Amino acid sequence: MDDHQFHRHFRIGNTVCNLFLAEFADAMVRIDVRWDSISPPKQLLVFLWDISNLKSVRETSDLFGMSPRNAHGCTHYVARMMISSFSSTRKRQRMPISTIKFSKCGDRRTKEKSAH
């Protein structure tokens, strides 16, 4: 699949997907007998497909050749792992959430008015 098709289906580029995989592949290896052996690249693709499309879990599981339980488990597991990784990184940097600047539509006008 070329990069354009990959981006169209998964909503991120192939390069970004490979960066995610390099960062999280070790954490995605599960040692749990309740789960089928699903490779980290496949777990990540199931997760990306699930969050970027409005398809049902059954359609996702059919597309990736796994049970609906495993498709849902991949999405849930990768999401929790990424959230956990983000929160532990933020703790290591000791950056309080209040220091992160978020912008919304109209913020610039509000700040300009308050400055005058």
Q: Mind summarizing the main beta sheet?
A: none
Helix share bin: 55-70%
Distance between the termini: 54 Å
Number of strands: 0
Number of helices: 6
Chain-averaged pLDDT: 76
Kindly provide the radius of gyration, computed on alpha-carbon positions and rounded to a whole number of angstroms.
18 Å
Low-confidence stretches: 106-116
Order of helices and strands: HHHHHH
Which structural class fits the helix and strand makeup? Answer: mainly alpha
Structurally, how many domains make up the residues?
1
What is the general shape? globular
Please indicate the percent range of residues in DSSP E strands (runs of 2 or more). under 5%
Can you tag this structure with a few keywords?
116 residues, Transposase Helix-turn-helix domain-containing protein
Explain this structure.
There is one protein chain. The chain is mainly α and 116 residues long. It has one domain. 65% of the residues lie in helices and 0% in strands. It contains 6 helices and no strands. It has helices spanning 3-10, 14-24, 40-52, 57-64, 68-93, 107-115. The N and C termini lie far apart (54 Å). The model is unreliable at 106-116 (pLDDT under 50). It comes from Potamilus streckersoni. This is Transposase Helix-turn-helix domain-containing protein.
